Amino acid sequence: MNKSENLLCTGSSLASQVHAAAVNGDKGALQRLIIGNSALKDKEDQFGRTPLMYCVLADRLDCADALLKAGADVNKTDHSQRTALHLAAQKGNYRFMKLLLTRRANWMQKDLEEMTPLHLTTRHRSPKCLALLLKFMAPGEVDTQDKNKQTALHWSAYYNNPEHVKLLIKHDSNIGIPDVEGKIPLHWAANHKDPSAVHTVRCILDAAPTESLLNWQDYEGRTPLHFAVADGNVTVVDVLTSYESCNITSYDNLFRTPLHWAALLGHAQIVHLLLERNKSGTIPSDSQGATPLHYAAQSNFAVKVTLKLNLAQGLQTMFSGTTDIYGTLHAAALSGHVSTVKLLLENNAQVDATDVMKHTPLFRACEMGHKDVIQTLIKGGARVDLVDQDGHSLLHWAALGGNADVCQILIENKINPNVQDYAGRTPLQCAAYGGYINCMAVLMENNADPNIQDKEGRTALHWSCNNGYLDAIKLLLDFAAFPNQMENNEERYTPLDYALLGERHEVIQFMLEHGALSIAAIQDIAAFKIQAVYKGYKVRKAFRDRKNLLMKHEQLRKDAAAKKREEENKRKEAEQQKGRCSPDSCRPPALTCLPSTQDEPSRQSCAPSKQPPAGNTTQGPEPRDCRGSPGGPLGRGPQKEQNVSSDLQGTNSRKPNDPVKAVMETGIQESPLLRSPEVRQLVISGVTRGKAS
């Protein structure tokens, strides 16, 4: 017994002394314990294991025999539903298996994985245990399946035990039973890196070298050849492809052939072997139109693959029969394989070829941040001013990947840092979306504007607040980003609103400390401002109205004063004209006709001159201008009439604005002063005084 077994016997995992006696091989103590208490022979420990199971584990054959003779249950199971026979088969202990089988152990008992002792015997290189078990099994029991629907033949192929395979096939094991993944034993035999696996493969193929067996596809469409290629087992590939019925260009569910797999994994020797035995002469493409060279370029194995052949011939062979001969450069650029990129460019690969998304190889390299590939492509003539189907530039993709060094390279190659895609987004917004502060710093140091809005009105600060990138927010504010920019949509959210919606508490606190406002706060402030502006507008409007009214009043006053001055000037002119006439030559007319009333303008009231001559029934002469001839009718009037006129003239001369004088000078119908009721009253009163005198 070794040291580990001594530790086992004294460990706390043993439930009783009977287990310790079984492990230590103390047959005498074991028998004494069993005789004293017969129930101890099947006593279970914390794992459900009996003393018989520990005899198997510790290889105590004599103790096991004593327990069996004492009536121990040979088919007792532990918590994993395994019997002592399972443990013996797992250990490959031929003596114990023979002892247990002679004591009628159940070889069909399944554990929790539904594995029988037959499955467990396939793990050991020696086939003795398997052969022993097969002697006790009835026909048909050899193909018992476990939880994964795998038989003992599957497990023998998996463990690469050709002798086990031969023995099982000899006992009529079915080589065409698929497991839960659709794999038959040949799949498991081919899926082995050990060159000796070729013997297991030959054992299966010798039993039934049929086309269906060679080209059997699992539930993902993979044949045994796919698995042999995947493991790089050239010997197994050689054996499988040596059969004429082997389909070398068989497609899996992704339309990839074994040649695709070999190119992807860089197995140049297998590629050469498959090309030699490809009778069709065509190079297949997968569902995306990719050839094996695309796969080789993606994994940087293009050099290895093509060097195995003649270089020009290899490229020509790989490129033949495909419609997308430039996708290889995309794959190499995406994976960052400079040597492959150089090889393809040297063989006239189109440097600006576009895929379905209008991406050139340079787009792929910028996305992944492969600086060496980017510089190689630019030196090879790649254009830096192209955009894809969404309007994204190379700088957008570099920013989305957070590749600050690539952004610097592209800016040095004259790409505008504020270029916008079809949605109005800038590279800075793309970097802010991912929180790539190094990339953001490079862009803003090269004059990227942090306040540019996309078509929805969002800025870089909106995206950083939405995703909670506090460091990016601090950087944007340091570069004068406006914290209260609103969206153009109906919600009009600000960056602070995005932080509130995402419950970014640290961001919210920081933004509030730096003057950020939510849309609700902005609306409240706007309402207050609008009210203040409206009130000011009303005050200014009232002031303008009053000012206009005062100006109108002032204008009326000025007009009245001007009119008064005009009238004064006219009066002075009239006085000057009157002053030129002598009192004798300018007598007032003997009779003055006035309108009787305002309501009867057509009637005239004629006042007779004072003391007319007797018998004179005619009216006085017509009024005439004071500038008339002195020998006229006025000159010949009675003396008394002249005196009356003189009295009137003397009276009126004392009044500068005497309306009677105006009447005497210009006539009643021509005087504008008579239009005023006041003047008319003065005229009437003057006439009345004349009558009285």
From TrEMBL:
Location relative to the cell: Cytoplasm, Cytoskeleton
GO BP terms: Wnt signaling pathway
Residue ranges with Polar residues bias: 594-620, 640-654
Region annotation (Disordered) ranges: 557-675
Basic and acidic residues: bias regions: 557-578
Source species taxonomy: Eukaryota, Metazoa, Chordata, Craniata, Vertebrata
Name of the molecule in the record: Inversin
SUPFAM superfamilies recorded: Ankyrin repeat
